[in-house]
Amino acid sequence: MIRYYLLIMGIFLAFGLIPKSHRLMNALAAGNGMLHLVVSCVALSVLDLPGRLGESLYLDHLNLYVELITALGFTAAAFYARGYTDSLMEAGELDPKNLKTFYLAFNLLLITATVALFSDNLALFWIFAELTTVCAAMLVAILSARENIDAALKYVFIVSGAMLFAFLGLIFLFTLSEQALGEGTLNWTELAAHVSEFSPALLLASFTFMFIGFGAKAGVAPFHTWLPDAYARAPSVSAILSGLMQNLGIYGIIRMYALLRESGAAPQASSILLAAGVFSIALASFSMFQQRNLKRLIAFSSVEHMGLLLIGIGIGTPLALFWALFYMLVHVLVKETLLFSAGILHRQYRSNMRENMWDVFKLQPRAAWSLILGSIAIVGMPPFPLFPAKFFILLESAAISPYLTLAILLMLILAAASFANFLLKAFSKVTLEEEIEGQITRPHSLTGEAELKIAAGEADHDEIRLPRKYAVKSGMRIPAVFMLALALALGFYFPDSLKDLLDAIILELGYV
């Protein structure tokens, strides 16, 4: 089955370099994602897992599950990309000459992530995880703006710098295996079989170093500082940063913690995860309340959710891990809904700033409702499926400390209030119904840049005009609606096949 994956990767990468038509390039990107999605489903249905291909490639329920999430998020982003990149080119923000580079990086990101996920060898996983950093940075820097290049460089320096610590952790782990087995190895499966023979202190040191690298990839505080800039500056098809890059980091953390659970270092590793999780939630919650930029608000929300995932993993019980794994799926569905909707609003107002959004329900009612429903979903309100995921993780955390649970709950309430505060202020601004040459004028109230211009005498109310309604490109609304509908469906119905898959992951990781 892995041979089919490799064949698909090669075909789509080769054909992606040939066409000059945007429609064909986009169709190849969407086809790439859909085929990965189909092959993942077939592999889960027909293969006897876990299985191996050669010395370095390995399939089990966990990496196929993460690959399934990755392919789903990538496919939705690919369909969204066509209309969004057309808008960018029309606005002069994306050079048409860079379109092929955009889709090359887009496809390579899925390919490198897939190889990383299927790598049994930790060194190979590290190499391809680093390559995903390069591909994602290309997507951030692709626009013709200095700020995008700065955000991409910041992303590369922070994540790659942190991944050097992960490389040190690999050296520690290889040395430990060499001392215990007589021959060093970095294969997950061999390490899991002999981890009880390793020194707990050195194993914990290795885990700590690797947590720094994988935590930066996941956007965990304090290694999260690349995330707000990348979200704010990148095209909204960078929603795959949430669905792919962050889950790749969480995947590495799950694998490493599963190793340590068989050793005497498990309690200390659990404490690291819980402390990092609480810190991430606290920092994100207080930062979110101050945000006036929609994409930065969504970015800090991702930091918050990565923190809650760390807590679910760090608790170390089968039930907590079950809901943490489910959380990974639902977070991608909802977060992409938010980012796709934010992308439409950005094209409407040429800004993600709260003060620049006027008459949202008049100009972009569907994007506004997608954003509202996505916000309700992301804060964990029923009937959306993040509610049971958060509830059971918090319930398990209460067994460790009721005070810890109370503190997390209060911070989650603050994060929810941040979304409510932003939406109320952004969506409540309306204008008087006066039209001049198709443009709405004379705002009822003014804030931000417009207010400053009037105060300085540089403009009057008649000169402050809102943009015409942006004609949403074909295909940009459908991915947001689809992802939100899928999330809502999971809130009402939990498929037996999904439950069996998550149970199989827990069993293979040794949670019994």
TrEMBL record:
Primary location class: membrane
A GO term, aspect molecular function: oxidoreductase activity
Keywords recorded for this protein, A-Z: Cell membrane, Membrane, Oxidoreductase, Transmembrane, Transmembrane helix
Any one Gene Ontology cellular component term annotated for this protein: plasma membrane
Highest taxon of the lineage: Archaea
Domain (NADH:quinone oxidoreductase/Mrp antiporter transmembrane) ranges: 119-410
Gene Ontology biological-process annotations: ATP synthesis coupled electron transport
Membrane topology: Multi-pass membrane protein
The UniProt record lists the keyword Ribonucleoprotein: no
EC number assigned by the record: 1.-.-.-
NCBIfam families assigned: PRK08676.1
Name of this protein: Hydrogenase-4 component F
Annotated organism of origin: Methanosarcina mazei WWM610
